[in-house]
Amino acid sequence: MSKTDINILVTLDENYIPYLNVMLFSLLHSNPDCRFDVYLLHSGIPETAVESTRQILKDAGRLIPVTAGDMGLQDAPTTARYPREIYYRIFAARYLPETLDRILYLDPDIIVNGSVKELFAMEMGDYFFAAASHTGALIRKFNEMRLDMEEESPYINSGVMLMNLSLLRREQKPEDVLNFIEKRKNLLILPDQDIISSLYGSRILALDTFRYNMTERLFMRHAPFEKRLTLAWIRRNCVIIHYCGRNKPWKENYIGQLDVFYRETVARMKGERKDPSPW
């Protein structure tokens, strides 16, 4: 039986390679009927650093490193948490081969818990991106004022994004991004998603947050009041679990319950947990 071909994008520096490997292992484990082309947009990761990543992919896919130019990003604000690589996903359509018409971007701090085939095949129409939002009405209003966003525009989490590359190549203007950075660089808090939400709000297709971008904060906020939202429900229904923010499951001081999915994946990688079927 032939496998479904799916394009994956990651953008990171060398420090995140170990966590990328865990994410990719979970992706392969949960999608045995797919083959993945994983494009790594970077600015200087040596080939020796990704040997372990290639070993994980093996016959289930291939790693395709792409060295990204600055695209005028020399003055873009960066921090230890938000290196320059976070901006590369904004310009993915410029960096990646023109033969690609869509790609699924995934942060490395993710566990894939289900099939991504339906997400990848989603009809996008005239939308540039498909992404989920974690913000409530109050935070959305704050972001509208801070970033001069259109009223009721979604403020998205950029950790999971389906990208309409063919449309972005035709219509995205890099100078709009650079001008926005120059004008508002002192106001940017989460730079890449600030930019994407502000410039392309009307061109973002909303994803089901509970299914495609489940987080510990979301679980904590809803689990006490919604009996259906249990760990068992998450195992059955959540495709992507995202450890966004500073609360990372590889740290000893993790707060919450969703680290169980990360720990189970690491155990599988080490051969300590062998299930007859995916989770």
Structural overview:
There is one protein chain. The protein has 279 residues and is of the alpha/beta class. The strands form two sheets. Strands 3-2-1-4-7-6-8 form a seven-stranded mixed β-sheet, with helices on both faces. Strands 5-9 form a two-stranded antiparallel ribbon. The longest helix is centred in the first third of the chain and has 14 residues, at 17-30. It is built from 13 helices and nine strands.
Q: What structural class do you assign from the helix and strand content? A: alpha/beta
Task: Tally the beta strands.
Answer: 9
How would you characterize the largest beta sheet? Answer: 7 strands, mixed
What is the radius of gyration?
18 Å
Low-confidence sequence ranges: none
Q: State the shape.
A: globular
| Global mean pLDDT | 89
- Tally the helices: what do you get? 13
Q: How much of the residues is beta strand, in percent?
A: 15-25%
Task: Please state how the strands of the largest beta sheet are arranged side by side.
Answer: 3-2-1-4-7-6-8
| First and last CA, distance | 22 Å
Determine the fraction of residues in helical runs and give it as a percent range.
25-40%
Order of helices and strands: EHEHEHHEEHEHEHHHEHHHEH
SSE blueprint:
Elements: E1 4-11, H1 17-30, E2 34-42, H2 51-57, E3 61-67, H3 85-88, H4 92-95, E4 102-106, E5 110-112, H5 117-120, E6 129-133, H6 137-147, E7 156-164, H7 165-171, H8 174-184, H9 191-200, E8 204-206, H10 209-212, H11 216-222, H12 231-237, E9 240-242, H13 259-269
Parallel strand pairs: 1-2, 1-4, 2-3, 6-8
Antiparallel strand pairs: 4-7, 5-9, 6-7
